[in-house]
């Protein structure tokens, strides 16, 4: 029996082109943005977010992040060509022309803005565009090649997605939304710097002053530890004084925070150990995912009912014992 070929050479070429454009968006970076957006929406709606609004906001957030990442690839195509891990990307490899990437990014941004404006509100749409501007203008253009604190200030771009989610649900930005922003903002340096420690040779090759390149592994590890110490009490602000999360989330936040601090302290003991840096980087991703899961589960009505009933039973039992 003769083999059947399901794709023609033309189709395979089309798939390759689509794959290159998909690669420009850096899809692996987008997932965490969507998780933090969804968590913010669940909390803002007290666990009862409208499914259509959730879907549209997440799709729009993915498009906005994809636009920002594509522009980042456009701007960094010169250094990407030199760095070993990025030399095969579509722009430095010549598979996509620079002007084509800009048109693609523009289309993504306009679509994201339109969707949020129509299905949510202008505030959330404007915040999504602000995220693109901060990432491109503040981080990529201004700070990345000029300051070892680039990821600290530029990290504000990655902290905007929960603001978008909160605004999409409520139409405003109250204090809990800004606490969510602060959590992502403080989490970003101890998340990114371990990765920078692993690939600092690449950054040094293209004169990008990441903290490990400028100050070395030891001072970077100490900075990471300090940020993990600040992160733990920051996460608990949602419990008090914001009162938008309960003790279930609080327990999750404390447990994850202690684990983060322990791993950061372990890195200080051997700052040059690539395995410890890699383990810390991987844990930082797991940390944010589980923190958001804990926040979402805590906000669900069924969870709140269960906790209220459990608290009532405990109070009754204590009263009987007394």
UniProtKB/TrEMBL annotation:
Reaction catalysed by this enzyme: heme b + (2E,6E)-farnesyl diphosphate + H2O = Fe(II)-heme o + diphosphate
Keyword GTP-binding: no
Transmembrane regions: 29-46, 52-75, 96-116, 122-139, 151-169, 175-199, 220-240, 246-265, 277-297
GO molecular-function terms, A-Z: protoheme IX farnesyltransferase activity
InterPro entries named in the record: Protohaem_IX_farnesylTrfase, UbiA_prenyltransferase, UbiA_prenylTrfase_CS, UbiA_sf
Additional detail: Carbon 2 of the heme B porphyrin ring is defined according to the Fischer nomenclature.
UniProt-recorded name of the protein: Protoheme IX farnesyltransferase
Source organism per UniProt: Pseudocalidococcus azoricus BACA0444
């Amino acid at each position: 029996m003769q083999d059947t070929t399901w794709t023609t050479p033309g189709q395979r070429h089309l798939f390759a082109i689509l794959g290159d454009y998909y690669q420009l968006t850096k899809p692996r970076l987008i997932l965490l943005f969507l998780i933090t957006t969804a968590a913010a929406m669940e909390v803002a709606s007290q666990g009862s977010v409208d499914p259509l609004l959730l879907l549209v906001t997440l799709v729009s957030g993915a498009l906005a992040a994809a636009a920002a990442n594509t522009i980042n690839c456009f701007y960094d195509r010169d250094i990407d060509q030199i760095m070993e891990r990025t030399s095969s990307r579509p722009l430095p490899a010549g598979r996509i022309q620079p002007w084509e990437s800009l048109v693609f990014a523009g289309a993504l941004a306009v679509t994201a803005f339109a969707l949020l404006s129509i299905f949510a509100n202008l505030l959330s749409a404007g915040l999504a565009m602000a995220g693109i501007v901060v990432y491109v203008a503040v981080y990529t253009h201004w700070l990345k090649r000029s300051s070892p604190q680039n990821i600290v200030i530029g990290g504000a771009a990655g902290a905007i997605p929960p603001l978008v989610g909160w605004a999409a649900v409520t139409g405003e930005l109250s204090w809990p939304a800004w606490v969510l922003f602060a959590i992502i903002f403080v989490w970003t340096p101890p998340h990114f710097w371990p990765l920078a420690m692993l690939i600092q040779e690449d950054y040094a090759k293209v004169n990008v002053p990441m903290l490990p390149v400028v100050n070395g592994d030891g001072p970077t590890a100490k900075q990471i530890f300090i940020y993990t110490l600040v992160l733990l009490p920051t996460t608990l602000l949602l419990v008090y004084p914001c009162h938008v999360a309960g003790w279930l989330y609080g327990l999750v936040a404390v447990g994850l925070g202690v684990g983060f601090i322990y791993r950061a302290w372990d890195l200080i003991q051997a700052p040059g150990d690539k395995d410890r840096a890699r383990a810390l980087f991987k844990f930082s991703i797991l940390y944010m995912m589980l923190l958001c899961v804990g926040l979402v589960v805590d906000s669900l009505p069924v969870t709140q009912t269960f906790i209220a009933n459990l608290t009532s039973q405990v109070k009754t039992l204590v009263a009987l014992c007394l």
